[in-house]
Amino acid sequence: MRLKKLRYRSKLNCMPSYDVVEREWKIKVNANECGMNLPPMVEDRVMGRLSRIAFNRYPNEDLEQLMEAIASNYGLQKENVLIGNGSSEIIEKLFFAFGGRNLTIAYPQPSFSMYRIYAQAAEARSVVIELNPEDYSLDVRQFIQKVNDSKAALAVVCNPNNPTGNALTIEQIEDIAQHTSCALLIDEAYVEFYGQSATCLLKKYPKLLVARTFSKAYGLAAIRCGYLLGDKAVIDMVKKTFMPYHMDVLTLVTADTVFQMRDEYVPRIQQMIAERNRMTEQYKTLPGFTVYPSQTNFILVRCDLAAELNEALAAKGIGVRCFGNSAGLEDCIRISMGTREENDAVFAAIKAFAESEGQK
């Protein structure tokens, strides 16, 4: 029996899809994940708590406990915290809260690719501010002007920025907050590798929102947990876009344990920063490669044969992120930091490719 023509939501057919299908890589450095699993002490504590879960109960107390722990860390109240399935879900809900017909959301480009998709889903108008093509810097004055001229309901800055790796200073973020009137989201998915957080501005600017995630520095990409910090009135409105009991207990217990034991991750974060700096200098030695400064757990490089390099690496079982002909990212490859051994192996493969091409 043939399926009859169904009536889908208007413009759904025009929505792009975010491809998350993966192959089995020998070395996987294409998704900005942490190359290490839970520290042993953290794993023991997580497993112990998971063994005592009441699976027949809804996740009320576990949610409250995590909210209180996060709020206490930032000198806030639990009403200033919103938990979501990764910072990605939080950003999506923010776009729904501040989007809709005749409303505008402003963000830089190139940046997190989902901003455009979330804006389309929310049926909001996008105002895109192009980064400087030479070094991917954001012209803060131009950003402020376009946000104000477009009468944006929400402005978004990924800091440090994905996939370019660079970052604004706290002074620049405050400049934006001070000279715009709309809600301002600072997406801090990679802030642990940078060290400068806009959370210090939250009490001064009630319209400011900060999104964080457990997926990167804390290696919890598998459980999907993030949080939003902001003024209670804003949090209350954004909360309306979430379903009841949208967080599961396994995620909440794991995230809460990791947050309580986050000091265990300090050496790991320092190690990832050291590897990023070491590999940045290594890639600078390759002829024909442009290496962009990074404050994250990845490095963005540009070379003329990026597509061919990507194929050569894939043939060796190495997965990196090649941007192909994406606007502003032509011939760019993003390389996440893995373990020291993985980083050396990836570099050796790229160096061999560069040298073989140079001999042609």
UniProtKB/TrEMBL annotation:
Residue ranges constituting the Aminotransferase class I/classII large domain according to the UniProt record: 31-350
Enzyme Commission number, as recorded: 2.6.1.9
Domain of life: Bacteria
GO biological process, any: L-histidine biosynthetic process
Pathway assigned to this chain's UniProt record: Amino-acid biosynthesis; L-histidine biosynthesis; L-histidine from 5-phospho-alpha-D-ribose 1-diphosphate: step 7/9
Cited InterPro entries: Aminotrans_II_pyridoxalP_BS, Aminotransferase_I/II_large, HisP_aminotrans, PyrdxlP-dep_Trfase, PyrdxlP-dep_Trfase_major, PyrdxlP-dep_Trfase_small
One GO molecular-function entry: pyridoxal phosphate binding
Classification via SUPFAM superfamilies: PLP-dependent transferases (SSF53383)
Enzyme superclass (EC): transferase
Catalytic activity as recorded in UniProt: L-histidinol phosphate + 2-oxoglutarate = 3-(imidazol-4-yl)-2-oxopropyl phosphate + L-glutamate
Cofactor: pyridoxal 5'-phosphate
Entry-annotated residues carrying N6-(pyridoxal phosphate)lysine: K216
Gene3D superfamilies hit by this protein: Aspartate Aminotransferase, domain 1, Type I PLP-dependent aspartate aminotransferase-like (Major domain)
Assembly description: Homodimer.
Alphabetical list of PANTHER family matching this protein: HISTIDINOL-PHOSPHATE AMINOTRANSFERASE (PTHR42885:SF2), HISTIDINOL-PHOSPHATE AMINOTRANSFERASE-RELATED (PTHR42885)
Family under the similarity heading: Belongs to the class-II pyridoxal-phosphate-dependent aminotransferase family. Histidinol-phosphate aminotransferase subfamily.
Name assigned to this protein: Histidinol-phosphate aminotransferase
Species this chain originates from: Anaerovibrio slackiae
Gene from which this protein is expressed: hisC
